Amino acid sequence: MRDFAVAEDRQFHLRVPMGVGAAFPRFSAREITEDRLGRLMEVAGLAPSNWNLQPWRWIVVREGAAKLYLEAATCTKVPLSSAPVILICLADTLAWKSAPLRLQEMIASRKISVEEGREALRRVREYYSSSPDAGKRAALANAFVAAHQLLLGAAEFDLSAYWVTEFDENKVRTYFHIPDHFLVATLLAIGYRDTEGAPEVSRNSPRASIYSEKFGEVPGSASSRR
After folding, report:
1. Is 54 in contact with 45 (CB distance < 8 Å)?
2. What is the chain's percent helix, strand, coil content, to nearest 5?
3. Where are the domains of the chain?
4. Considering the domain 4-225 in this protein, what is its CATH number?
5. pLDDT tens digit string along 28-83?
6. Rounded distance between C-alpha atoms, residue 174 and residue 167, angstroms
7. Bridge-partner residues for 74, per DSSP?
8. Are 178 and 72 in contact (CB under 8 A)?
9. For labelling, which of 10, 68, 136, 173 has a CA lying 20 to 30 Å from the CA of 116?
10. Within its chain, how far is the Cα of 120 from the centroid?
11. Cα(124)–Cα(152) distance, integer angstroms
């Protein structure tokens, strides 16, 4: 695909969408059709989630003034408004309350037994009611999985995409009338690339972020083998 950045290793080829590990691109004026966007959203919806809670929601932003507002609300200088579509990815911190319905669906499809469903529901309620942070943490984690799925899907549809996580959440929440129990996880700019060959940014070695058994223990060191 044209919009793939290719990283090559002796053992395998890894392809990731442009915008991930690359400079933020500008987009052409070419529009994304509703059909293509709908197919892309279907791909994102296939992302896995805890107990199939699917806590993500999307606001599709195409209107020019709204895109300019989002660009101004970011904390870094990125050409968001050049994208034909900006998706606001939301994370529902109360999605866990739909667990009874989701578990019942799993029982009906015979993925789990009635007894397993009851035990799972007990554990879900116990875990999420223990702290408000539990729902926030799980909702954000699942929303980011869906967002990343969407980025990969965009590359397959010959689109460029990148996400932005540095923005004024209160401004975004107020302008788009977002309920309090939703977190704004990320903004995703999607479109057709305007120019080719955006410069790559340097990446840390994977080994620099991997520890063995305990935090700070370098794999292969004497202390990690004890």
Report:
1. yes
2. 40, 20, 40
3. 4-225
4. 3.40.109.10
5. 889 999 999 999 999 999 999 988 899 999 999 999 999 999 999 999 888 899 99
6. 13
7. 167
8. no
9. 136
10. 26
11. 30
